[in-house]
Structure formats: C-alpha cells, structure tokens
Amino acid sequence: MYNGAIMPEQIGGPSFFIGRDDDTLISFGSGQPDLPPPREVFDVLKSFSVFKYGLVQGELPLREGLAQEYPGASAEQFVITNGASEAIDVVLRVIAKPGAKVLLPRPYYYSYPYNVTFAGMMPVYCDLDHNGKLDYEAFKTAITGCRAAIINSPSNPTGTVQDIDTLKKIEALCDALGVYIISDEVYKDLIYERENYLLCGRHVITINSFSKTYAMCGVRVGYVYSADTSVIEGIIEMRTHTAMNTSVVGQAMALAALRAPRQYVADQLAIWKGRRDLMYAGMRELGLDLWKPEGAFYVLPKFKDSNRAMHDLYYSYRIITYDGTWFGAPDHLRFSYALDSKRIEEGLRRVGAFLAKEYQSY
Fold this sequence. Notes:
By secondary structure, the chain is α/β, with parallel strands linked by helices. The protein is built from eleven helices and twelve strands. It has helices spanning 39-44, 60-67, 83-95, 112-118, 136-142, 164-177, 229-240, 248-259, 263-285, 306-317, 341-356, and strands spanning 26-27, 78-81, 101-106, 122-127, 146-152, 180-184, 204-209, 222-225, 298-299, 319-320, 322-323, 333-336.
C-alpha cells in the first residue's frame, strides 16, 4: 500500500494510465466514451472495399456533409485529420511564427502547452475566474502581442461552458487585433445547459472530431474548419508531406455517423447528463469542492497534494484519476465520468473511503 513515502512506480503523466484496464480498476481517467457509436457506423464495414490513398484534404462526401452542419460553410473550408489532436498540431504549425505567443486559458487541456511548444511558439496563460469562466478583462490584457488563443468550450478539464457574451467580445477583440482563435469544440454536442455557440470570424479556426459525439475515439477522424483560405491551403500543403490522408475507412464510418438519426446524439446526451448529476451530487456529498459541469464529461474537484492523492487512489484503491497539475490546476484532480453509473457509484464509494482514511493525514 502506498503511504506517501514509498511508491511502487512514479506516475509521471497521462501516458502511464493510457491503455491500463482490468476488472479491479475504476478508471475516472480517460476521456473516452464507453457508449457505442451509431449502428450505421458498423454497417460500413460490411461492404467497404476501397483501400487506396484518399484526398489529402479529405473525402468530398464527408466534407460536404460537414458543411451542412455549419451555416454558410462549403466543403472547401474543411480538412479531415487524424482526430482533433492532429488538427490542433497542424493548425499551430501552419500559423506559427518562431517565438510567437499563444494564449491558453488555464486550466487547459494537458496537451496544449506541448502543441504550442512543438510548433516553435510559447504558451502564455490567463486564469479562469472562480466560476471556471473566462474573464474578458484578463483575456484582453493577456492577448496583447499573441499570435493566437485556444478556446475550449465545453472545457476539458473543467466541464464549464463559456458565456456567449464573453465569447462574442473575444471574437470582436481578436478580429480587430488580427489574432487567430483556435476553437476546440470536440464537446460541442455535449452541453447540458444551452445550445452551442459557434465562434466565427475572419481568423477563427474550428477544431472538432467524431471521437466524443459519436464515440469513435479509436477511428481517429477529426477536422479543421475555417473560412481563412490561407490556413486551409497551408494545412493541405503540410499534410502532403506528413500524414497525407486520413483513413478512408474511418472517413466512410464518420460519414455514416453524420447521417445517423439525430436522436442518437440526443439519447447520448441524456445519458451523459444523468451521469453528470450522479457524479456531481456524489462528490458534493463527500464534501468536495468543485464546479458543476455544464458540458463534456469531467469534474475537477479540489484535493490537497493532488499528486500524492492520485498515487494513493491508484495504488491503494485501484482508482485512476489525473493530476490537475498536468492541466495547470495544482491541488485538483480531474475525474472523467465516461463510465457506467454502477462503476461511478463504486468509484465514489472508494473515494469516500480514501477521504476518511489516508487523506486525513494530508
């Protein structure tokens, strides 16, 4: 048993947990939906037979289908990528200027600072307010001299959704300054409190994927959407020499998901909301301090010595959580509720046991 002094193995980052799974574990770690994709996705595999290289920009039927989801969009404004992760990476490298700054609201998704650094730029930060929201005045000060800002709403790891009035002000500010907004909207269909607000403007670049809405993480199909022709052309040129095309089978499956009845998304959202309510209420009953998620499927409760708590929970209680320090939120742990209700309840029971025992010595 880990007691804070001797550790069997140091947990250095999320990669330690990725792929770990057995019957004894309750994983609140991975942001991977456990729900099935639409039935139509599986039907593609019964007859698909074309395995040649695809278009670098992405197959036209999928881009045409996506264009119908965005008012005024055309197929030429999309590039299909290997998940949202490649989309963010390639966008940052296309717009990069050596040493330029990219603004990240904090807490942030743990890969963002690395993505920015890999592109030869420098991450800078503005902190969310006490409600997990963007403070416009703080953003306005921090954006000075930046090349771009990444907005993630609903947020991983906070679960908060940014206020529409604030987003509109940020739109206008960045448009006036000529600053790119990279809008990471992978959770846009998982909002519990209101409809999604699509950021728009001359320099807005939207990132999305089929991983969360359609539970297709392993298929690795994402996309970039932008009205900025130079960005789209730059991505196509870069991908010609890097990833080339995204899986043609994956794109056919993504198109099938897109054409599935919209009730699929509504049904999934109802399940996520029920899990949100269970997770939030359970953590409040345990006395934990956290924001109520408005979207996505994460909570970020406060914990003293979050790294030690993560180790204790894993080694003593077989619970996977992610250290908030990885997200720019020390003294927090991120819990994903992408697991069924019975396992959530069992996980909460184990967290309660930890709080009543080891945590008392922190």
